[in-house]
Amino acid sequence: GNSVTQMEGPVTLSEEAFLTINCTYTATGYPSLFWYVQYPGEGLQLLLKATKADDKGSNKGFEATYRKETTSFHLEKGSVQVSDSAVYFCALSGGNNDMRFGAGTRLTVKP
Amino acid sequence: ETGVTQSPTHLIKTRGQQVTLRCSSQSGHNTVSWYQQALGQGPQFIFQYYREEENGRGNFPPRFSGLQFPNYSSELNVNALELDDSALYLCASSLAVVTSGGGKNIQYFGAGTRLSVL
């Protein structure tokens, strides 16, 4: 079945550092890929998405490229801020529309 | 703000009891999905409702059941609560469009209901 594996945390960075959170997936067909962010005490917010190979999703300085050849969708940001501290989830949606999530990566950014 | 609202925000029940959680979809959405998120883990898919019919189910026992109403709001019912049912329950709404290769609809999440079973 479909599944997502993402880099386990926690990840602690200093402000303005470069961020990479790795995500790889297993799926049949052509899934859509997503990154969601969850702030403390809140639900999930869509951060970015990509629906086909080589698509790049981007939002708020975050980027991820759908790499079919490596089955990956790594999240990157060039310069993180304290306000980026949250838990990040990689997810995929297959033909039956149910979403599969990774276990989440907790990011803490220190000033 | 996603327009998806869940109630209640917090709930405490005892083992063996029954619980009903509610979700109002974003306006214009016809599909609701429910997820269970245990502490420190990613959300796990429970089931999805499309136009009032169950449209997919994850690996959850039958004591987890649901409803979707004509206005596309939804309920999640859990019978015979167990301690391991303690979790954040998330509802997500989306607009399902029937196209080839599906899976492209974005799901918008509510803030969740935190259920504690004692």
In short:
The complex is a heterodimer of chains A (111) and B (118). By secondary structure, chain A is mainly β.
The largest sheet of chain B, given as strand count, sense and whether it forms a barrel, is: 7 strands, mixed
Figure out the total of helices of chain A: 0
Number of DSSP-assigned strands of chain B: 11
Average pLDDT metric of chain B: 90
Strand content of chain B: over 45%
The coarse overall form of chain A would be: globular
Helix and strand element order of chain B: EEEEEEEEEEE
Unreliable stretches of chain A, pLDDT < 50, 5 or more residues?
A: none
Helical fraction of chain A equals under 10%
- Which percent band covers the strand fraction of chain A? over 45%
The geometry of chain B reads as globular
Structural class of chain B: mainly beta
Q: In oligomeric terms, what are we looking at? A: heterodimer
How much is the radius of gyration of chain B in Å? 14 Å
**Main pleated sheet of chain A:** 6 strands, mixed
User: Radius of gyration of chain A over alpha carbons?
Assistant: 13 Å
Number of helices of chain B: 0
Query: Mean pLDDT of chain A, as a whole number?
Result: 93
First-last Cα distance of chain A: 41 Å
Unreliable stretches of chain B: none
